[in-house]
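Page 42, continued from yesterday. The earlier attempt failed because a stray header line got pasted into the input along with the sequence. Redoing it now with the clean sequence only.
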Amino acid sequence: MKNLKADLTGQIAVLTGGAGVLGMAMAQALSECGAKVALLSRTKSKLEAACKELTAASGNATLALAADATSEESLRIALHELTTTWGRPNILVNAAGGNRRGATVMPDADLFDTSAADWRSVIDLNLMGTVLPSIVFGKAMTEGGSIINISSMAADRPLTRVGGYSASKAAIDNFTGWLGAELARRYAGRLRVNAIAPGFFIADQNRALLMNEDGTPTARGKQVLDQTPMGRFGDPDELQGALLFLASDDSSFVTGTVLRVDGGFSNFAGL
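This time it went through. Structure tokens are written below.
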């Protein structure tokens, strides 16, 4: 855990997809800085374990909201539980997302054999799993707050294999810019919208793709490291500073932007 300096005392934060490796690092930062943190995901037991871990580490209140980020009805039920328990949220982190095997094209596979259903599923998970929480929870945040979306290196530099994931993350960048401007005009800048674009961090969904069991990089992992000027994968804690900047009043004149935390990957041509 880094030395975190933001003061979020009295703030109420909702973090979708919060029980994963990167989600937990972000949730820990919010909690350590004084925010009450509600984790939202579909698996109640995993959420409760994560909330117990957060409370033990920071001493601050946590809440497990079992809900589907792609279901408007489910999100509205979760919002009602949150407001009944704590009140209106001030911070929303849209960290729910992922990929689907059928929307991925491996080197020995045929693009035209990919699954239309999996393409729809990954786009629904990443894009609508960001749009819907922004609409449902954002409506309760118009007196003041910050929405933080999670983008990707695949958004503006399409990566091989992950076609559905890349397309959906590119849409998140566009949505972030559009919503940031729209809400700034309608609510006098009280509700801001930005995104973080992580570089390559080892998480549950990409561990086997990037790392061998002995801790050495796979061929794909070596390609990533060769294209990252810092020459290493990111540590989940290294997302915390960007998150706290965007969540706090330190970024009070920042909206509609995408902040890259990538070790230089997005600005390197490989030469």
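Notes: Helices lie at 21-32, 44-58, 72-85, 116-138, 163-186, 207-210, 219-226, 240-247.
Reminder to self: strip header lines before submitting.
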